[in-house]
């Protein structure tokens, strides 16, 4: 699925470059070979179009960043449940202290998040171990702890899925921008060389503009990707901490009440 999104975004980047940025209305005389119009949105569209063949790739990378970030925001938001994980853990602890396991399970159903799925599975194991008479206390604790770990291993991949794409964008966007910058500077020096010692101001400024447009798009996307990656990993870390806290509470409560 992620590979399909990447392909669609790259194709969309080419289409945007050709049909939106390269629209005739963005250039003087309606010719994309001419300078961009003097003002308005068309001026900026035409200016970005002058960035050259690397621009559609960078636009594709920007669209990938946007698409994956929206998907991660929705997924992690759902995984966080209907209210904060820390508040959920406090409620579960209060139910455990009252030995109200059924109440804790109902609270998991009300929360509807990844942490509640893990806790709910662990609570069912808690009840199972309470009814078990063939195992000693240590074996029961280990069984509950194993259930917590296995449930966590099932939920965590969903939270971390596609984050590697955002992390990759932080470096790939910069490298692609650098490629565009180098191409632009090659054109700039080529313009100087072909001028026979005199400066062709139009060709030189066009080549430098191409280099800087690529630089701006690539570095801007890399910066946004870095920020988003840190935001998502921070939210996942908070959920992971809450999961560990809830799992410890379940195991320690069982051990305390069945000594």
Topology:
Elements: H1 2-21, H2 41-49, H3 54-79, H4 85-97, H5 101-111, H6 114-131, H7 137-160, H8 163-194, H9 201-257
Provide structural commentary:
With 259 residues, the chain is mostly helical. It folds into two domains: 1-50, no CATH class; 66-259, no CATH class. 81% of the residues lie in helices and 0% in strands. The chain contains nine helices and no strands. It has helices at 2-21, 41-49, 54-79, 85-97, 101-111, 114-131, 137-160, 163-194, 201-257. The radius of gyration is 28 Å and the shape is rod-shaped. The two termini are 50 Å apart. The model has no long low-confidence stretch (mean pLDDT 89).
Tally of distinct domains: 2
Total count of strands:
0
Give average pLDDT, whole number: 89
Number of helices: 9
Query: What would you report as the Rg, rounded to the nearest angstrom?
Result: 28 Å
How would you spell out the order of helices and strands? HHHHHHHHH
User: Uncertain runs with pLDDT below 50, 5 residues or more?
Assistant: none
Helix/strand class? mainly alpha
First-to-last CA distance = 50 Å
Biggest β-sheet description: none
Helix content: over 70%
How would you sum up the global shape?
rod-shaped
Percent strand equals: under 5%
């Amino acid at each position: 699925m992620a590979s399909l999104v990447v392909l669609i975004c790259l194709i969309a980047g080419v289409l945007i470059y050709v049909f939106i940025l390269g629209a005739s209305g963005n250039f003087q005389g309606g010719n994309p070979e001419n300078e961009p119009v003097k003002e308005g949105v068309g001026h900026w569209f035409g200016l970005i179009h002058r960035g050259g063949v690397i621009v559609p790739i960078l636009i594709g990378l920007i669209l990938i960043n946007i698409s994956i970030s929206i998907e991660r925001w929705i997924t992690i938001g759902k995984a966080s449940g209907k209210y904060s994980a820390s508040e959920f853990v406090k409620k579960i602890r209060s139910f455990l202290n009252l030995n109200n396991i059924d109440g804790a399970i109902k609270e998991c159903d009300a929360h509807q998040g990844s942490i509640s799925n893990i806790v709910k599975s662990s609570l069912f194991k808690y009840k199972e171990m309470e009814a078990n008479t063939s195992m000693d206390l240590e074996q029961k604790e280990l069984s509950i702890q194993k259930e917590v770990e296995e449930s966590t291993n099932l939920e965590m991949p969903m939270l971390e899925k596609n984050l590697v794409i955002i992390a990759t964008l932080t470096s790939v966007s910069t490298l692609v921008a650098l490629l565009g910058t180098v191409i632009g500077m090659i054109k700039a020096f080529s313009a100087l060389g072909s001028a026979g010692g005199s400066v062709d101001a139009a060709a030189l400024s066009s080549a430098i503009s191409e280099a800087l447009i690529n630089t701006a798009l690539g570095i801007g996307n890399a910066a946004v990707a870095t920020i988003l990656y840190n935001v998502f990993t921070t939210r996942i870390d908070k959920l992971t901490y809450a999961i560990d806290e809830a799992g410890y509470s379940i195991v320690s409560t069982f051990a305390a009440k069945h000594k």
